[in-house]
UniProtKB/TrEMBL annotation:
One of its GO terms (cellular component) is membrane. Residues 38-257 form the ABC transporter domain. GO terms for molecular function: ABC-type transporter activity; ATP binding; ATP hydrolysis activity. This is ABC transporter. Belongs to the ABC transporter superfamily. Keywords: ATP-binding, Nucleotide-binding, Transport. InterPro entries: AAA+_ATPase, ABC_transporter-like_ATP-bd, ABC_transpr_TagH-like, Bact_Polysacc_Export_ATP-bd, P-loop_NTPase, Wzt_C. It holds the Pfam family ABC_tran. CDD domains: ABC_KpsT_Wzt, Wzt_C-like.
Length: 448
């Protein structure tokens, strides 16, 4: 257990709202309930309860990063508001330590009639800074926000992007112990988002705790050590980010599948033993064992094996930077399929997607499959990844609308295989990956 001091502890948090069907029911609840209470009678109930959040417990220590994921309406923003003290919980309790700077919904904490400058001082005082302390930070805040002369205009005249620029600049320059960031960053331009994420990483390196909510699961995976998955106000999973994200993806796939008409019944599993020698069958059995973690299948088609080999077909677990390898995927169609798609993700040890490709991107669709047909697909590529540990996720699907990434998932294996990349004879790589370049030099001679 970490010895770092506790920044946030929540136990059994819940938030319940009363929902009235008619305006007069609210009045009845106020008057009649009080009148019956005075007479010693049980009060009536003219409302129904809606629990926006229920039984959420978590801990965040100094220097830790926790992401909160879930679909719209799952209770993410409600949770953050209670943790920041801007919303009182119905049940449970929250304990906090140190200064918390929050970037919640757009414009939260700003007075629209005040100028940007006045709001900087207002927010600073709310966070416990003296005027002299805000004075010392103001130029840094204004430079980070980069809104020019608008700093002296009322914030009601700001665009959404200007709002979030100023709000973020204040939040990250008040020497907070905990930074809480909701979806507000999504309205900024790409340059500002990159600037924000780089600054957040520096704060984390300096020991600031982060509570981060985003629909960008990739950002959560890259920034957060742990994650909490909420669904309809209740916690589903809390733990290491990669595992929680896979639980979230699995739940979404299952929900989408349940909402669709049931597919035609798949043919009984068809034997493929006569196609393979004993070594291949043993490799397929080993694949089935390691692929079982959070695997999703609908029975229409399924992977038999996924392996990484050298150019001679020998299995690989360790790859040198610059080595050309083959990713071999073997699958069987259990029923006739007119068009199938296949994809792979190369992920780092945190589960962050580094490389992706699929058969549509490569213009190699798989068509006219017969029931029982077995297909082997080889992806040949040169590994140009930073040294470290990686895994490959494999997906087999039936495309429906690729413009919006809508597919019917036949088989999804979050961890189809794992491998290690070593540097070999090359110099260190200072990013996640490298792509091939053509470099040309020429000398431009100026006048003497």
């Amino acid at each position: 257990m970490s010895s770092e001091p506790m920044m946030i502890r929540a136990e059994g948090l819940g938030k319940c709202y009363r929902v009235y069907e008619r305006p007069e029911d609210r009045l009845k609840q106020s008057v009649v309930a009080r009148w019956r209470g005075l007479r010693g009678q049980p009060p009536p109930q003219y409302y129904r309860e809606f629990w926006a959040l229920r039984e959420v417990s978590l801990e965040l220590r100094r220097g830790e990063t926790l992401g909160v994921i879930g679909r719209n309406g799952s209770g993410k923003s409600t949770l953050l508001q209670m943790l920041c003290g801007t919303l009182a919980p119905t049940t449970g309790r929250v304990e906090t330590g140190g200064r918390i700077a929050a970037l919640l919904e757009l414009g939260a904490g700003f007075n629209p009639e005040f100028t940007g400058r006045e709001n900087v001082y207002l927010n600073g005082s709310v966070l416990g800074l003296t005027q002299a302390e805000v004075d010392a930070r103001f130029e840094r805040i204004a430079a980070f926000a980069d809104i020019g002369a608008f700093i002296d205009q009322p914030v009601k005249t700001y665009s959404s992007g200007m709002y979030v620029r100023l709000a973020f600049a204040v939040a990250v320059n008040v020497d907070a112990d905990v930074l809480v960031v909701d979806e507000a960053l999504a309205v900024g331009d790409m340059y500002f988002q990159a600037k924000c994420m780089a600054h957040i990483q520096r704060l984390i390196d300096d020991g600031v705790s982060l509570l981060f909510v985003s629909h960008d699961v990739g950002a959560v995976k890259s920034v957060c050590q742990r994650a909490l998955y909420l669904d309809r106000g209740q916690p589903v999973a809390l733990g290491e980010t990669a595992g929680v994200v896979e639980a979230y993806y699995s739940a979404r796939v299952q929900a989408e599948r349940a909402a669709r008409p049931a597919p035609e019944a798949a043919s009984p599993e068809l034997p493929a033993q006569d196609l393979f020698d004993p070594a291949d069958l043993e490799a397929q059995a080993e694949f089935a064992r390691r692929a079982d973690f959070q695997r999703i299948r609908n029975g229409q088609a399924e992977f038999l094996d996924v392996r990484l080999t050298d150019l001679d077909g020998q299995p690989l677990e360790c790859v040198e930077f610059g080595q050309t390898v083959v990713l071999r995927m073997l699958f069987r169609a259990n029923q006739a399929i007119a068009l199938a798609g296949m994809a792979y993700h190369v992920r780092d040890r945190t589960g962050y997607d580094i490389i992706y490709s699929d058969t549509e991107i490569e213009s190699r669709p798989i068509t006219d499959l017969r029931a029982g047909q077995v297909v082997q697909t080889d992806w040949r590529f040169t590994v140009r990844l930073r040294e470290g540990d990686y895994s490959i996720a494999a997906m087999l699907s039936i495309p429906e609308n690729l413009e919006i990434a809508q597919v019917d998932v036949c088989d999804f294996v979050p961890i189809a295989l794992a491998f290690k990349v070593v540097r070999g004879e090359t110099l260190p790589l200072h990013a996640a990956c490298h792509w091939q370049n053509e470099v040309a030099h020429r000398t431009l001679e100026g006048e003497a």
